[in-house]
Design goal:
By secondary structure, the chain is an alpha/beta fold. It contains 9 helices and 7 strands. A 7-stranded mixed beta sheet has the order 2-1-3-4-5-6-7, covered by helices on one side. A hairpin with a 5-residue loop joins strand 5 and strand 6. The longest helix has 17 residues.
Length: about 220
């Protein structure tokens, strides 16, 4: 049996959103053509569709622990994020890719704290090891805002790794694909967007947050746009 909360939610969906947008769902049944891909964390508090108030079919979303993009490589056997990226770029021909980080990220903390494995497979530990280059660029762990800075640096690192995929790099260089970095503050609701020229993360809508804003800049601003 499904949890009752899901059943109740589905009933509400049928009575409200599906009823209002039935025509849209019927047209989407024929295929999808989103122009934006969002690579986000699987954290239950950070839903791209909710944050961006997106309608069905508007965003192609892939979620994983700590919103990571691995570097391009053809070894191994399973490439979930790379497969989603390949489909978004080559088949859907999206025009934008957004790497969306967030505050209080458990995956970033697990890497920073060198947390003990949760299972013999240590799937989380091996996955978040992708954060290592970002941590190296930040240098020694110091200051009360280290984890926050590492969250931003992790977004930067994923943007760098996106550019290692030939299909992405070629389209970016031709001006047919744009890369974006962003960070969502769970408590404040503030979205900060990376400036491709300076590497600084600035409020997407200045003055919209309920908390004071401040400029956050990663040390190296040379990653994709």
């Amino acid at each position: 049996m499904l949890p009752e909360t899901l059943t109740e939610g589905y009933r509400a969906f049928l009575d409200d959103r599906f009823a209002r947008e039935r025509g849209r769902y019927e047209s989407l049944a024929e295929g999808q053509s989103p122009e934006i891909m969002v690579i986000s964390c699987c954290d239950s508090r950070v839903s791209p569709e909710v944050i961006f108030d997106a309608r069905p079919g508007e965003l192609f979303v892939v979620r994983n622990v700590a919103n990571l993009v691995p570097p391009f490589e053809t070894g191994g056997e399973y490439h979930g994020t790379s497969a989603a990226l390949e489909f978004a770029v080559q088949a859907l021909k999206v025009k934008h890719i957004v790497v969306l980080g967030h505050a209080r990220c458990g995956g970033v903390r697990a890497f920073a704290d060198d947390a003990a494995p949760l299972s013999p497979g240590d799937f989380i530990g091996r996955w978040v090891s992708l954060i290592a280059p970002a941590a190296e660029r930040l240098g020694p762990r110091d200051g009360p805002d280290y984890l926050e800075r590492l969250e931003y640096a992790t977004v930067e690192n994923s943007l760098r790794n996106l550019m290692t995929f030939p299909c992405v790099r070629i389209l970016v260089e031709k001006g047919r694909l744009q890369l974006h970095g962003a960070h969502f503050g769970i408590a404040s609701g503030e979205l900060r967007v990376r400036d491709p020229e300076t590497g600084a993360f600035r409020p997407a809508v200045p003055g919209a947050s309920v908390s004071p804003t401040r400029l956050i800049r990663c040390q190296d601003g040379n990653a994709g746009g």
